[in-house]
Amino acid sequence: MAQDDVLIITGASTGIGAATARAAAAAGYRLVLAARSADKLTALAEELGGEARAIAVPTDVTSWEDNEALVQAALDAFGRIDAIFANAGFGASRGWLEETPEHWRDMVLTNVLGAAYTVRAAIPALKESRGHVFLTGSVAGRRPLTGSLYSATKHAVHAMGEAIRSDLNDTGVRTTIIAPGMVETPFFTDKPSIEALQPEDVAAAVMYAISQPRRVDVNEVLLRPTAQPG
Predict the structure, then answer these.
(1) How far is it, in rounded angstroms, from Cα 20 to Cα 137?
(2) What domains lie within the chain, and their CATH numbers?
(3) Model confidence over 8-18: pLDDT tens digits?
(4) CA angle, corner 63, sides to 57 and 68, nearest 5?
(5) Which of 53, 124, 172, 210 is the most exposed, having the fewest neighbouring CB atoms within 10 Å of its CB?
(6) What is the pLDDT of residues 31-54, one digit of tens each?
């Protein structure tokens, strides 16, 4: 990594996104933080150094126009984009009758289309920098979970990562899927019954992949809590 490289993170206001922002800031990155929660984003940007080091861009990733504006804000502020972490997403209760159709729709649009939009908007700038695409997958994207449409969205993200990797194969852009198991974040309404991963553990996986020599493309990092049975 070159000092002052620029990283965009969606879903940056809490959990994995916020932990990754802190880890990247400590490593010398300039940050563009995106989420729907403007107050939390602004506070995190201030914590990480203010406008010279981190900017907050309220973003709905399901809006193509918002993704275009996010990328433009990064270019206006810092002049380049070296990596993007399409991390925004949320889950749903298991069981095909357990959530409203509206919740399902919002989840699929955010987890799948939102990630695709974010990457699409950033690709021209990433080609210029020979940058890095990160996507938040999941252990649930490696095996179907009973009654889980969320699992299906993460299977789509894993397929998306490989589709992007092969599409950008001759450009120098690297692609990594970060696939955690259970993480203790606001994503879960109930406290995990096992010792779950911490958001900082997942952030460390991002920093590992991004810090490899340019000849190395870590395509997937799958990490589970030691006690997770599946």
Answers:
(1) 15
(2) 6-223 (3.40.50.720)
(3) 999 999 999 99
(4) 55
(5) 124
(6) 999 999 899 999 999 999 999 999
